[in-house]
Amino acid sequence: MAAIRSFVLEVSDHAGQPLDTFEVPVEGAALFINPLFAMLPKGSFLLLREPWYRLIPRRLTTGPLNAPEYVPPAVPGLPVLDIIPDPTDPIRAISVILYDVERELYQGDYDTVRVFGPLLTYLLLARIAAGHYTTDVGPFRLRVTPQHVGVDMRVFELLPEDLRVEGVFPLPTTRRPGPRTSFELVTQHTYTERSLSDFPVRRTFKPELGGRNRLMWSAATYAALTQSQPVSEYVEVGGFLVGQVSRDAGTDQLLVDIQHVLAAENTSASAALLRFTADSWSGLRRRLVSDLRGLRLLGWWHTHLFPATDSFGLSGLDETLQRLYFPSPWHFAALLNVSREQERVLRCYQPDIDGMLVESSFDLIVEG
Known about the structure:
Layout: E1 6-12, E2 18-25, H1 30-38, H2 42-46, E3 51-59, E4 83-85, E5 91-100, E6 103-110, H3 112-129, E7 140-147, E8 192-194, E9 202-205, E10 214-218, H4 219-228, E11 238-248, E12 254-263, E13 268-270, E14 273-275, H5 278-288, E15 296-304, H6 316-325, E16 332-337, E17 345-351, E18 357-360, E19 362-365
Parallel strand pairs: 4-7, 8-11, 10-12, 10-19, 15-16
Antiparallel strand pairs: 1-2, 1-7, 3-5, 5-6, 9-19, 11-12, 11-15, 13-14, 16-17, 17-18
Helix pairs in contact: 1-3
């Protein structure tokens, strides 16, 4: 069953007249999900390695609901809006499943207003403040439509700039905290023409996976990441990948030549989470205009502190970071599993034609 990646939240007034439509990535449920994780036994919460969650719509035809008692805490100072499920909505509830790596921690079924109400309150208040409607048209009716495709993070621009979300999952924002480092977003990209035969001696890892772009690691860069790059057994570490991008004249496939592995500066990290800070981006920018001038940001890398398995790769948090900060056609994510049970394991992930991050093959350029 394909994962649900986003929801369309349709809001109407008390009479059922449409008012607004919001496209919300699954990350928008973080305001509801974080307190659920906080309810876990303290010992298991502190030992989380790679937490994530899944949202599964429950329709009217499904069986009895598993609905543990849980009411998300009210946000101090935030007005309470009257939001109710649309009586014509076939979506009866949302099954919320909490995981750590592949271990299920918790499952409960909650009505759609409980799951999306905290976020929707902020969205409606922003639209009310902008004069689109008033609270008098309530109670607001909510209709939820799940989607298997991802959507951009534009909806989060409606949230207050000073909003702080406590818990495991940060609420995505299109604004980076602290001094802003500007990376120009362009829709037309230019590439030098090269041929795959310009990289004649290659060893391909997992060739059966293929990939949208051809990812090629220099021997020195591959050795640095898989052998000598400093890592930690206690907190995730990561950084950036820098090199050149060209286009194969014969196939139009992008050739991504990975030449440098950089450790990010002043990250915010734990055993289960890595976040790049304003200092991280500023440090990268300094390198790209000095000793790495002429090269491009190709993507990012980070560690997971447990053995690699075929069934678990990037987490939901990792995918969010990729979509927010690495949107260019050549961007990819490198995952380095670090554990005492096995040697370092490197895997690469890039978007497929549907925008889903999937594991891909990569080449090692054998020098000499």
